[in-house]
């Protein structure tokens, strides 16, 4: 399959496919004319890559995890790695929630200030 065919079938851009190849997530061969050629199973692999990216995994982690996708077997080390990734996301979500709470405080103060009649001093 040519790069455009894989991109269309997988719902990604050709640029994404070139990036995935650069990150060693997928592989291609070359035609005599130098065009990238992919095997038909590349489409399913790209769909998995998209899913794993959407789950917040880095390309480095995805490279490590993809063999488990194909075999259906994840060893203890990979399960530990995925749990660590989940914990990292949990920490990030807590940080984002704290940041949002601070922004809500700033917004509330700004709305309170905007609701005061013109010329009224703060704290009066």
Characterization of this structure:
Residues 1-68 form the HTH merR-type domain. Pfam families: MerR_1. Keywords: DNA-binding. This protein is mainly α and 124 residues long. It has five helices and two strands. It has helices at 3-10, 14-22, 42-54, 59-71, 76-115, and strands spanning 29-30, 36-37. A two-stranded antiparallel ribbon has the order 1-2. The longest helix has 40 residues, at 76-115. The chain is elongated and about 80 Å long. It starts with a helix and ends in a 9-residue tail after the last helix. The model has no long low-confidence stretch (mean pLDDT 89).
- Count, helices: 5
Oligomerization? single chain
Helix content: 55-70%
Contiguous runs where pLDDT drops below 50 for at least 5 residues: none
Number of strands: 2
Give the rounded overall mean pLDDT.
89
- Measured by DSSP, the beta-strand proportion falls in under 5%
Summing up helix and strand content along with how strands pair, one would put the structural category as: mainly alpha
- Give, in spatial order, the strands making up the sheet with the most strands: 1-2
- Spatial shape: elongated
Radius of gyration: 24 Å
Main sheet makeup: 2 strands, antiparallel
Give helix and strand order, one letter per element, not per position.
HHEEHHH
| Cα separation of the termini | 73 Å
């Amino acid at each position: 399959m040519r790069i455009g065919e894989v991109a269309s079938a997988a719902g990604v851009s050709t640029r994404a496919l070139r990036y995935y190849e650069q990150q060693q997530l997928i592989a291609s061969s070359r035609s005599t004319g130098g065009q990238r050629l992919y095997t038909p199973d590349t489409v399913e692999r790209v769909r998995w890559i998209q899913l794993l990216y959407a789950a917040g995994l880095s390309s480095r982690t995805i490279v490590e995890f993809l063999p488990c996708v194909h075999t259906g077997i994840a060893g203890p080390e990979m399960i530990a790695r995925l749990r660590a990734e989940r914990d990292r996301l949990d920490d990030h979500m807590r940080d984002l929630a704290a940041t949002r709470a601070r922004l809500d405080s700033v917004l509330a103060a700004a709305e309170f200030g905007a609701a005061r009649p013109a010329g009224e001093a703060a704290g009066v």
